[in-house]
Amino acid sequence: MFYIFYGFVWLLTLLPLRALYLISDFAYIIVYYVAGYRKKTVRINLRNSFPQKTDREIRKIERRFYRSFCDTFIEALKKLHISDEEMMRRFTFEKPEILIKHFEEGKSIILMTAHYGNWEWFSSFSLHTGGKYCVTQVYQQQKSKNFNGFMLYLRSRFSTVNIEQKQALRAIIRIKQEGITTVFGLLSDQSPKRSSTHYRTRFLNQDTPVITGAETFAKKTNFPVIFGKVSRTKRGYYRMEFIPIALDPAKTTDFEITETYMRLLEKVIEEEPAYWLWTHKRWKHVSVYSL
Fold first, then answer.
1. pTM surpassing 0.85?
2. Which sequence spans correspond to the domains of the chain?
3. How far apart are CA 264 and CA 232, in angstroms?
4. Given Cys at both, which of 57, 69, 119, 220 links 53, Cβ 3.0 to 4.6 Å?
């Protein structure tokens, strides 16, 4: 069954994005109106995050989110065939010299970003540096072996290195010892397991357990920490801005890096909420999900 799926996707993504967006428009109708995929979770997340908004405003954000959600899925699959030139036009980086300065000093970067906009296209950063500096992504292994392999194949485009989450700290320390310079991309907006929750904060009007892995990696290596702020400029086009969080992590107080990241992310989401991944049960350990 998986190989049938892969063959279908391989052929489908030969189409240009303008054609694939027609499929995304149709998928939106199915996913939102027919299947109602995780609609209950999305609606409660939005209501709890924006209690000041009316039901009409919540539904508008909800619909815009599902359109973006379908686009992001299609765009991720398009990595099978998208050319380097088109990728560079569609995902750009503002002030990359902020990162390059540290690379030239022999330092790698801990880049904290989120499931916002199109997080799958960040790996194209290496294209903008002529392949001189690579991207290393920390990922969580999927339950399906075939699907996990497929996603790793997609995420390996543009010479991206992928490190499984459980092996991340050991791999990052080894890379530092070997003197390799890279940017470590970490999606730091997920919910930690209850047993591994070390920090909580007020985020989007809710008590929120927070993943602290990026801060741990930064303090172990003293690599500078940068926030990757993503914005969607128009359909199929994104920009990432680099915002320093901590240039000398060893001198920061406990959870200072994590808290700064959460405040930056919160501001991004409040300004344009439709592009965050609201289908995640982000507050599953603290919220009662009921309509």
1. yes
2. 2-275
3. 17
4. 57
